[in-house]
Amino acid sequence: MRVKNYQELKIWQKGMNLAILIYKVCEKLPSREKFGLMSQMQRAAISIPVNIAEGWSRKYTKEFIQFLRIALGSLAEVETLIILCENLRYLKRREVVEARGHINELQKMIYVMVKSLTSRL
Question: How far apart are CA 33 and CA 26, in angstroms?
């Protein structure tokens, strides 16, 4: 089956699920972090599916790969912020483990896609 639009991509779907999870995690942060960690984490999380969608819409493989790499950077940013929240004791260990599990799974999927697309060039 050929993918007709970015919404059918598993990596976009998982990116959207991660963004939703991050928004729920952010609800647990102290209100004083509204314009700090919370804002930064939400922007980075949103950036993941947005970059996947934008890259897909460009229609050129090299551009798509570049946007996938940007999404990987945003994933690393989200993970770093999650670790920081844990170190600040804003989040419980199980919340961190769950978020990092989603992040790691999506990273692997994007790496596989980048490798596959690069091999076609």
Answer: 9
DSSP, res 116: H
**Count of the separate structural domains present in the chain:** 1
Q: Is 100 exposed, middle or buried (0-12, 13-18, 19+ CB in 10 A)?
A: middle
Which domain CATH number covers 115?
A: 1.20.1440.60
Q: What pLDDT, on a 0 to 100 scale, did the predictor assign at position 10?
A: 97
- In which domain, by residue range, is 76 found? 8-119
| Nearest-angstrom CA–CA distance, 57 and 85 | 34
Query: What tokens were used for 89?
Result: 């004791």
User: Per residue in 24-53, pLDDT tens?
Assistant: 999 999 999 888 999 999 999 999 999 999
- pLDDT confidence band for 61 (50 / 70 / 90): very high
Model pTM score = 0.93
Both structure tokens of 61: 């493989």
- Coil, helix or strand at residue 34: coil
